[in-house]
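FW: tagging you since you asked about this chain on Friday. Here's the raw sequence from the shared folder, copied in full. Didn't touch anything.
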Amino acid sequence: MTSHQSRTKRLVRCVLKACGLVAALVVGLIAATVAVNTRYFTDQSEAIMTPFHPFRSREARDGYLTQYDLRARKWPVPSETRMVSTAFGQTFVRISGRESAPPLVLLHGGSNNSLMWIPNIKTLSEHFRTYAIDAIDDNGRSIQTRPLKSPEDLINWLGEVLDALGLESGINLLGVSYGGWLASQCALRIPKRLSKIVMVAPPLTVLPLSGGFAMRAILCLWPPRQYFTKRFLYWLFEDLARSGAAGRAALNDEAEFQSAAMQAFTPRRLVKPTLLTDSELKGITVPALYLVGEHEKLYSSPAKEAVARLARVAPQIRAEIMPGAGHDVTIVRADLVNKKILEFLSQP
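HL: got it, structure written out here
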């Protein structure tokens, strides 16, 4: 055998080995995607309503709610809580600020709850009557008993919550991440009830999701969950991780809290966010503010492309890039974000 033939065979073996690795990766990603859909898009109507629903067990419920209540002690302003009945179950709401102040409804991000507003609530509640909602299908004190299968279901659920709170019109909506997408859906579907909306780094909505985000999110479903969740959060909230020991401690705590939630709750159905068409973006007539961190990793393109698309197809939506932040913008640039929100909402 000549040296040329030998090199050729080695090259063929290397190519076949690489193809095998790629195939294994593809199979793994398919399996992971199936796991995501099984875990997060299971029809809740098939679930057995136990006394500790929506938790896996009584111990899981008690352990998670103990952690939740410890976090709630950090809420920096006086508050009252309400459990609101809807056709989809019981919804937990934390209310702060003067009763006479204009209403501001807070919609948190996915895999989270109303306590994510701790860095912002003091400033916001000085100017508004704030209503921080635990989404009924996410990690909080709300208790879902009926599945939400579409954006229409989400709007119907939120509409019932607003009705129960006595908020008929003139409502300001502030949503972060998944909550920002929900705010955009409200602007399209119930504009007459709204005064203004603020969308902070909503998934999809303006740009497609990045492949890196999807792959890292999938890995969080696999053991060791806390390890992969921690790596995911350090990647997504890179500016917070680089801010110092306090930022890293906060990320470690969040990774532990989210991992505990994944183990504590039974599978629940989430409504998938959508990429809005040009006509849908143009159709948002409610005064709207879009904020995004310059280092946002949620999208398939840089943050400036999201702002450029809005300027091109929906110039009525005010869009700004927040420097020195990514998806952690409401934390690492809390003062700036609060300022931008208050300036926008205070304008006639």
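FW: The CA atoms of residues 239 and 325 lie 6 Å apart.
HL: agreed, and Residues 3-40 form the longest helix (38 residues).
FW: great, closing this out.
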